[in-house]
Amino acid sequence: MKTVTLEEFLGVLYADSDAQKRFRRNPAFEARLAGLSKDDCEMLLKMDWGGFELACRSFARKRNAKTSRRPFSGFGSVARMLRRVFGHG
């Protein structure tokens, strides 16, 4: 079993919707499974669940926004960006 830090564990939770579902069902088990310390496990059980849900939704929106951006497409994109930056057009 690999031991992770609390920050690494939360990072996985924020990024992985399946891990979030498992954690919501049994937070103590998932924290112990990840190898968190006893103190970290106890702290997770006392966390602000509303804040956790808000953070999960916020990170998901940011990930979705990054994947839905148009790809950079050469000179035309550069020209449009420069016009926006310098106010011509």
N/C terminus separation: 58 Å
Percent of residues in beta strands: under 5%
Radius of gyration, whole Å: 20 Å
Count of all domains: 1
The number of helices is 6
In one word, what is the shape?
elongated
- The strand count comes to 0
What would you say this structure looks like, in words?
This protein is an all-alpha fold. The protein has one domain (6-86). The chain has six helices and no strands. The chain has helices spanning 6-15, 17-25, 27-33, 38-45, 49-68, 74-86. α1 (6-15) packs across α2 (17-25), α2 packs across α3 and α3 packs antiparallel against α4. The termini are far apart.
Secondary structure: elements and pairs:
Elements: H1 6-15, H2 17-25, H3 27-33, H4 38-45, H5 49-68, H6 74-86
Quick tags:
single chain, 89 residues, mainly alpha, 6 helices, 75% helix
Short description:
The chain has 89 residues and is mainly alpha-helical.
